[in-house]
Amino acid sequence: MWRFPGSFSDCPSLPCRPLQAFGQAYTNQRKVAEDGETIEETLLQESASKEAYYMGRLLELQTEVTLSRSVASNVQAENERLNTLLQDLREARVTGSSGVRSGVRHHGHDPIVGAKSGAKLGNK
């Protein structure tokens, strides 16, 4: 009568060979499953790390956009202020108000129209 051996390698007879094959297949399957779990854990860690990086980067870019909008708004306000000042200076020149123009003329060059003083104003 056949009895279960202490280990698969101890069994020299024919009935042990299927058990050895089964044992080897089971060991291989268990190793593959363990490797798969290790790979899965590694991928999950990498994904979490990438998610954290991209969330941080997203916050940085949102801050940049907010700052850029603020700068653009300030530039637009300054542009409007300068356009108003330019229009006031042009109107003062047309009306001949010498009080406004006194600080504008330098050495015969008019920075408003970019020509020698006395030149006609161009329309906008």
TrEMBL record:
Residues 96-124 are annotated as: Disordered. Pfam families: BicD. It comes from the Eukaryota. Keywords: Coiled coil. Belongs to the BicD family. PANTHER family: BICAUDAL D FAMILY MEMBER, PROTEIN BICAUDAL D HOMOLOG 1. This is Uncharacterized protein. It comes from Xenoophorus captivus.
